[in-house]
Amino acid sequence: MIRPTESTTSSTRVRSPLQPRIRTPRPVTTVDGADGELIMNGVQVRSIDLTGVDSDFAELAGSRLAEVRLSASQWRHAAFADSELIGCDLANAEFVESGWQRIAIGHSKLVGIRAAGCSWKNVRLSDSMINLANLRFLEAQRVQFEGCNLTGVDLGSAQLTDVRFVDCDLSEADFSNARLARVRFERCRLARIGGVAGLAGASVGPDDLLQLADSLAAALGLRVETEEDGDDSAPEPRTASTLTVEE
């Protein structure tokens, strides 16, 4: 069941993601992606264009990327760890058999990103556009989305553990067959959620729960009527189950 959030106990407390471990990176002005390999270790990169890069193996570690263009890029067997990406463009990038660990992304564009079946651990995404992303079968642990546009994101069959959504727009997101443990929604837009049964086990605030009313009613086959719609003289329809709301 979806639980309205009243208090946080040790069993339901959502663990926050760990911060990236970055020493002083060295500034570089070019990145060599020859032979399908792209290695960025301990570097600081700003305002370079890697649009459409196609990498069979990539490693990003201990680095800071700012205003780097990575749109429409292809990443296979990529390992991103202990790095920050600020103001970067990863729109329509695709990650296959790849993992992120202790990654912080802010003020970036990830529209239409494809990371189906990938692993995100200790990842923080803030003030970013992630709408229409394909995150099916994603394994996410200790991940936080804050101030993000997640409209239409596909989280079908994803496994989310210790994940927090704060001030995010999740309108028309799909959670079909998702598995959630210690997942919390705070001040989010949750209109027209697909696969609402996949939210079982999540914690929501009272306002967030109200926004789920239409999706929950549709999933349960409930019809919401106004007083004008009702007819007191008509016989009460038979239903297969009864919904009871208790104070």
Automatic annotation (TrEMBL):
InterPro entries: 5peptide_repeat (IPR001646), Pentapeptide-BTB/POZ_domain (IPR051082). It comes from Microlunatus soli. SUPFAM superfamilies: Pentapeptide repeat-like. It comes from the Bacteria. Signal peptide: none annotated. This is Pentapeptide repeat-containing protein. Residues 1-16 have a biased composition (Low complexity). Residues 1-25, 224-247 are annotated as: Disordered.
